[in-house]
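Assemble and predict.
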Amino acid sequence: MSQAVLPKAYTPAAARGARTEFDAGSILRSGLFYLGMLALALIFVLPLIWMLSTSLKNDVQTYHVPPIWLPWPMRFANYPEAMRAQPFGLFFLNSFRYALLTVIGQLLSCALAAYGFARLRWKGRNVLFAICLATMMIPFQVTMVPLFITFKHLGWINSYKPLIVPAFFGSAYFIFLLRQFFLSIPQELSEAARIDGASDLGILVRIILPLAKPALAVVGLFQFMGAWDNYLGPLIYLNSQHKYPVALGLQLFQSNFVEKLAWPYLMAATTVTILPIIILFYATQRILVEGISITGIKG
Amino acid sequence: MAVLSTAASRSHRQAATRREWRRFVIGMLFVMPWLLGFIFWTAYPILASLYYSFTAYDVLNPPRFIGWANYVNLFQHDNLFQTVLGNTIYFVVVGVPAVLIISFLMANLLNKEMRFRALFRTAFFVPSIVPAVASAMVWLWMYNPNYGLIDNILATFNIPAVPWLSSLRLAKLSLIFINVWASGSAILIFLGALQDVPRSLYDAAVVDGANRWQRFWNVTVPMSSPAILFVAITSMIGTFQYFTLPWLLTQGGPDNATNLYAVYLYQNAFQFFKMGYASAMAWVLFVIIVVFTVLIFRTGGAKVYYGGQVD
């Protein structure tokens, strides 16, 4: 394949020679490479460092030109003061409850559906799975209006029900992800359990799920982060401020405080909002990284 | 004998259909939560949305059938819609290639042998897990004229402040830059694809005398093309539905320069209570997304190289 495409203009010796020589030039080059990488990495994390730095400043430091990176003295009081300015504790509880309940809902329903699609052979399975995949193509905007009207008729507006209940009915993307993983588990394991008299539910719970822990973790993680991040859904369904999740709470905070130019407070609140996600990321980094590259390739 | 055997085969057949029926019931039971959810939260809303798109509906009064009027209004009488559609296509045409090119290059850098690779990878990836609202707040402050980081640094050198979010010329690009900043998951997908490229292909290319540039174009790019196609399509769809950042950072301004499709649709539905009109917009959006998907497949899909084709 590659031979057909490539012209043979360069000698292999020249290509190899450039690679193996260790001289001042190559040391300089690798030094420049690391410097470049460091600069790029800094560009990516700079906004977050700036956020953290601002969250510890007083007013003078905030509006100082040139910018101050390491404020001294640090004003840690910004954090408790910002948390008290709005009921952030309540917003956090709301978000955690919402995120955890949807994680439970997705794991239960998606594991069942993925088992049905991956490990059982029955008439109609392929048609239904194709439909399931096709629903991923539908933009949220198409179903947004009728769903709002349905939930309004059910009297679910201004509650978390429209955000939580559908999670107990699964999501095509997670079903697809779990199904791919379930397919990779050897069929002999299920057969052996079946001979021992296990039912399908028993096989799922006792054999498949323990083996699929990494995939379940990816689903749980994605769902938690998605719920924590979700802004449009709560914006549509929730009216009372005391029901707000952190996403809406942070925006409420911003609209109340920006006129007073309280940037350190806003950045403190933003830092606190990001914190659970960063902690979760560090705790599960490996799973997350693998999960994303798996979905990309298999998708 | 003959009678007996037909009776036996009939009972065999009955047993077989019974088994098949039993399998069907068990299979259906497992997918039932999803199937019910599909009917309640997808199939019915799709049909309802299609119906609403042909009605005038303000939620308080029952929907009133008005035929194609919503669609005709969108394309013939709503100048703002034209602007919004143009803006959104600009975001797709400029923003998606920007994300693709930059994250692919970053992934190639990360794929080299180096120290601190995990640290660099984390640095590139972390912005993408920052919740959208939080990143809106961070960038509101970054882009703040006078005291935000960028203008503050400019002020240090006595360069006048640049209105990143309120300038007609810059507002779109400022928002697109945030997308590039948060494209860590694309970097990871590309990195996964790059690590699957067999080393032997590079060795063969070197033997054939290919330089670094030729190896990149003739080995790296074709071997990662499925991942490139995947990221192109998902980020195209994501851009068409881009809501939180334009909503929070610019509220569609200045002068509707960043008013995007999802923002205008939300406003029609939940601020102007034109549910029928918003539904028509949603269907137009769906058709546009399908057209763009087909377009990407047509132009890029032919060049996509799947691993299965080797050997």
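DSSP finds 17 helices and no strands in chain A.
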